[in-house]
Amino acid sequence: MTQPPPHGWHQQPPPPQQGWQQPPPGWGPPQPPKKSKAPLVVGTLAGVLVLAGVVTGLVLHLNVNKDSGTSKRADKLPSLCGNVSETALAKARTTNPNGLMSRETKLSKGVRTTCSWNQTKGVDGTGHRTTDVSVTNEREEAESAFSRSISMNMANTQGTPLQKPIEGLGDEAVVILVETKSAFTEMSVIVRKGEMIVEVDLSGWDAGLFANTKPDPAELEAAARGVAEEMVAKI
To answer: Rounded CA gap, 10 and 158, in Å?
Structure first.
């Protein structure tokens, strides 16, 4: 049973509702702002770019550092090529005989023997190396042939040739370094011993982190000179 209000109090009827029964548009409690997706998009894009960079770098590294040698061949070279030992060829990082580039050629006043080696896969490392040796019997024209070989090497237009003499090798000898704008580098040792002219050309480049790099000239010179010394000692 409904109790009457206490004395002195009067229960007021609720005021009549007028107008909107619901808050008008734009009124009412504030709504939380919608979260922006921009940071997520930017973060995702950055992650994709980083991943792409890592993948690209890995591909470049593997390509540059791949073994550029070929399987060991059993090519027979001219007998004179046997004057160069496996030890000297290993130092030059070219232990694979290349029969296609090796031959004996008769000249009007002598014979020229050419010997060629390149890299053996799994043995001579990455980068690139080629060793070419020519031995020419020039008879009475050895001195002029020696000067001619030097002039031809110094006329190399692919780079800037630098020349210096070598003491204690044959009757006279020089070493010529040719550096190019690329990583390709060539080292030539030219020796005259009596009527014989020996030229050793060692060329190539080294593998860097993401691109080819120039070899150490001192390493090339030591390797080329080692091959020349062995050939000269046995002719």
So the answer is: 112
Among 117, 79, 110, smallest CA distance to 95 is for: 117
Return all residues near 110 (Cβ < 8 A) that are at least 6 apart.
Answer: 136, 137, 138, 139, 195
| Residue 5, pLDDT score | 53
**Which residue type, as a one-letter code, is found at position 111?**
V
**pLDDT in the model for residue 211:** 80
Predicted local confidence at residue 151, as pLDDT:
95
Percent pLDDT > 70 in the chain is 71
Question: CB neighbours of 151 closer than 8 A, spacing ≥ 6?
Answer: none
Biggest alpha carbon–alpha carbon distance for the chain: 148
How far is residue 175's CA from residue 27's CA, in Å, rounded to a whole number?
92
Query: C-alpha dihedral over 133, 135, 141, 143, to 10 degrees?
Result: 50
Separation between Cα atoms, residue 214 and residue 179, nearest integer Å: 8
The candidate with the shortest Cα–Cα distance to 65, out of 128, 2, 139, 115, is: 128
Reported pTM: 0.73
Q: What is the pLDDT of residue 68?
A: 76
| Extents of the domains making up the chain | 79-233
CA atoms 126, 80, 138, 193: torsion sign: positive
Could you identify the residue written with the tokens 């050793």?
200
Q: Name the phi and psi angles at 216, rounded to 5.
A: -75, 120
**CA 180 vs CA 39, 112, 131: distances in Å:** 48, 29, 18
Percent of the chain at pLDDT > 90 equals 57
Indicate the CATH number for domain 79-233: 3.40.1000
